[in-house]
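Hello Y.,

Per our agreement to keep a running log of every chain we model this quarter, I'm adding this entry. I've kept the format consistent with earlier entries: sequence first, then predicted structure.
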Amino acid sequence: MYLKSITLKGFKSFASVTTLRLEQGITCVVGPNGSGKSNVVDALSWVMGEQGPKSLRGGKMEDVIFAGTSGRAPLGRAEVSVTIDNTDGALPIDYTEVTISRILFRNGTSEYQINGDASRLLDIQELLSDSGIGREMHVIVGQGQLDAILMANPQERRGLIEEAAGVLKHRKRKEKALRKLDSMQANLARVQDLTVELRRQLRPLGKQAEVAKKAATIQADLRDAKLRLLADDLISLTKTWNAEVADETALRERRAIVESELDRTRARESELDAETAIGNPLLVQAQETYYRLNALREKFRGTASLAQERSRFLAQEAEEARTAGRDPESLDHEALVLRQEETDLRQGVENLWAQLQVATAALATAETELKAEEDRVAAALRALADQREGTARQEGHIKSLAARLNAIAEEITRLTKARDEAQTRADSAQREYSTYELDIASADSGELGLDSQFENAQRALDASKAKLAALVDDERAADRERNSLESKLEAMRITSQARDGAAALLHDPRGLQILGSVASLVDIDAGWESAAAAALGSLADAVVVRDLSTAVMALTTLRSENLGQADFLVLQSGDNRNIGSIPPDLIPLISHMRSSQIDGLLRQLLATTVVADDARQAESIIRAHSHLSVVTRDGDAFTQLRARGGSKSTASLIEIKALIDDLTGKISTVTHTCERLRFEISTAESELAARQGEFDVALAKLNESDARIAALTEQLAVAGQHAKSARAEVERLNGAIAEASAARSRDENELAIAQDQLQHHGDVAEPSHSRAEVIRAEVSTARSVEVEARLMVRTSEERVDSLAARAKALEDAAAAEREASQRALLRRGVRARGAVVSQAIAESAYETLIHIERSIAKAAAERGRLEELRAGREGETLTIRARARELVAEMEQLTSSVHQDEIARAEQRMRIEQLEAKAVEELGIDVQTLVSEYGPENDVPTFIETDDGQIVATELIPYRRDQQEKRLAATERSLALLGKINPLALEEYSALEERLRFLAEQLEDLKRTKKDLLDIIKEVDDRVQQIFMEAYEDTARHFEEIFARLFPGGDGRLILTEPDDLLNTGVDVEARPPGKRIKRLSLLSGGEKSLTAVALLVAIFKARPSPFYVLDEVEAALDDVNLGRLLGVFEELRETSQLIIITHQKRTMEIADALYGVTMRGDGVTELISQRLRDAETA
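Predicted structure for the entry above:
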């Protein structure tokens, strides 16, 4: 097996179709750097399944497609085909020549082909897995891979040896076995859960089967006792009902007489009520007139008294008001005097302000003259002192001043020049500083967006991680819940599979018109399953048939085929009459049940059945309505003579069906939830990958921006320091120049004075101090005058303010007094008029009171007459009403008696109908048969159970009710002692036993499968250890040989990192070149590292040869001597394998059988030139 050719089209720089026809020996590919030699190696890796873009020296997989140049358009796809000679049958395919192709389109779509047929990547990997090529392509050694081999960890070096030895297929086999083991473990846990559930159900079911056997005899005896007591009750009630009908006529005749007399009494009462209706309003009107006149009399009396008192009070108050108040004219006069004083004082204040300003100006002038005189005296004193020092000293001083002035002028010139230079530097530094500030501001504004982008990316990444973790947890919880629900559902379905006659007919109707079981035909509201099961009892499992003949045929079939027992309900019953009624305040059970096929049948079965919330409410309903049956939500059933309920060890088929429907709905919901969560997890993983990419990009941009801002900040700091230094220099020089200029001005003044004094060197008189003393006395006097004027101004202003406040108060008081006088005058006039009016009112009220007294006397006489008439009517009315009440009471008593008799007869009739219905519904016997066969005149048989389980009748005894009641109580006690009886327990027990045996066998099979998988895993581990150890030993031996050849006098070997753990041990390399004591690979030179890596690869190649090897410039770092040694090794490899070498070395080219020259055209497209060297040399 060897590579015959490789064809490239649109792959990287190979834009045109390019074919390399390879030789079995050594084929060298040469060419300048960047011409596309290594693209040949990348093409081989890519066509054989390489999936990593970085391994192909690209950023993404689309980079392998020709991207176009300035003179050539880009292509839409890349295609590489490699043809392998399979004459020796190394590849497991029925072809002597195999062509593997790979096509990649720009939209990301990829295609694989084997001999032109579409295939998968897995198919190509499996095809090449046993050929020695390896999945990771260890036979292709690219650029830089030698360093990667040396720098690899021990586990990665072990991977090279395993790949060459073909361990990958064994590891795949182990992974497959582990996956099966995980799946089988889940099945094992599920079967174990089912087994535990079935065993838990089997134990109580076995007890129920034993109880069911014992209950058969007791139930037969119980049924006979019930029938005989029921027949006795039915006959007794019928006789009583017939005897009570005769009393009804007499009660009805007496009720008619009482009703006639009651009508006459009520007619007279109506006449009296009419007279009362006319007379009472007249009496009320007379009483109201009398009362109104009395009230009017009292009102006029009060008005007269009040008018007299008011007249007296107003006259007295007017007299008192004349003497009150103060004269407002005197107040105005006082205020006017104060205002005149205020005006005079304000004029004086203005004069004082003028005097104060004059005094202040005089003080300022005197102080100015004093300072000037003192300065003149001081200057004269200094000049006199200088005069006295002598002329010689004055001349020396003048020369010194002249020299100093010259030096200062030169210093000022130098400082000015230095200042200009420093200012130039400062301006330049400031411009540079401003430029950097703008750059930083621009970078900062850009970084705001980067910070926001990074924070948003980080938050999005954290949110995606949290969302993915939450979804994974939810998916695991939902999966666990689904497994649990499926186990419960399977257990429930096994429990619901009955094994009686009804189940046999439902499974195979045998041509009968069977509608189904009651449980399957009825829909029940959630929460009412237990109530429905309690009400229906054993009929919940009954089979519904079309007519009675079908039921008879079904019973015949069950008996003839020995299929067991079954209850049948006939849909078209002949008696559809209502046998009971339910009061409107109660809720019938049928309102919680629905059926499209047997609704009428259900209404007949449950016509007198109502629902209650608890047992207490059921008791109250039974007490009020004894003909009803009551069931509770918990499954307790009550009638007047019976109560059934308590805790249940098993559920009825109705409840089991409801549980199965509920579990099925929950499983569907949980399954949908699991699928939704898996889809959301896939979406979340994709979103997480995208968020991670965005986070990495944002972080890289932020780091880049931070680095740029840091550099600009550093440059800004330098520029700022330069500008600050230059400005400080300018300020320092400006200060020095200012100081020098000031010194020059002082020296020039001093020089002028000195020269003037020298020219006028006459005697200088002593300055006089008398004028200064006079001016100083004037200043003191002016300051005293100014202080006195200021105090006078302040005092006058305070007096003005006080007078103004007093004048304002007097003016306000005068105004208030005037207003009070006006109001008092108005009030006096009003009071005088009021006194006259009050006197007139008092006189009129006295005259009115005389007329009112006469009217009151007439109203009192009329009121007395009307009250006498009302008293007579009320007496007669009371007598008539008393008689009417007596008649009503007698009428109610008669009516109640009649009604009670009717109710009693109706109850007796209803009781008779209930007994008849009970005989038909509960005991399955018609009334005529019940009376004829089980009446009191018939003898009573006794029942026993034979050895084969049959119930037979024995001797007969006369009927006695007390004996039958004792018999019934005894059988009921015996039946109650047995507890809850499951009539299907035997069949269910057998079915569960069979299911449990089946699950036990499945469990054993799973355990054996687990053992087999563990054996396979152990076998694979042993095989991997064996293959690896053999390959390692061969590789280690060849490594020592190759290393000794490449490093004459050196020592190299391979060692295992964990010799005791061959499955997980790594492989380490020790290399000691000749003349060196080091063994660590990191301390070797570049050439020594390359030779060591080549030695390891060649050792692997020789230990487990492959059909071909591709080497990309592996000898580039070797000198001529080491190159010759390596070429000798290549010559040995050529004998067993095909070598394709990318090289720049001339000596490597010389040993090649074929040579391909690679060149890059001006348009960026690679071209090939080939030459077969062996044929040329032979020629």
